[in-house]
Structures are given as C-alpha cells and as structure tokens.
Amino acid sequence: MAEKSILVVDDDHVIRDSLTEFLKTEGFKTGIAATVKEASAELEKQNYALVITEINLPDGDGFQLLDLVRHNYRRRSSS
Prior knowledge:
By secondary structure, the chain is of the alpha/beta class.
C-alpha cells in the first residue's frame, strides 16, 4: 500500500505539532503549514491525500483553502 500523506494547516504550533506527531505514530506522512499561503506552496511541492485545516487562519480561512484545493489540486497521480 502506498504511503498516504496528510497536510495539517493550523496557525497554533502546539495543535499543529501534536496532530502531526499523532498522525506519524499512526503511519502517515505529514506536511505542515500555518497559513493559506504556506499550504498552497506545500500543495505545489507534494501530493496529499487529505488536508486537515483550521477554519480561522491569519491570511484567510479554511474554507478558502479547501476551495483552492478543490479547484487546483484534484487528485493527481504520484508517478
């Protein structure tokens, strides 16, 4: 089974780091971002199977980020 990657987006480093560590113990590869801009840059670099985001972010909100994902980062093959 291919390793699944999850992007965790939260501006609170304690929550972001705690969730990331938990996901790693469950066998997931993780990426992190604190803003919509950082998340967008991360999505350009790596394919993610799932994005977990906070609603209130410093430069926008989680709904904007999810719209961005839906319109620009539909599932891509990892070839």
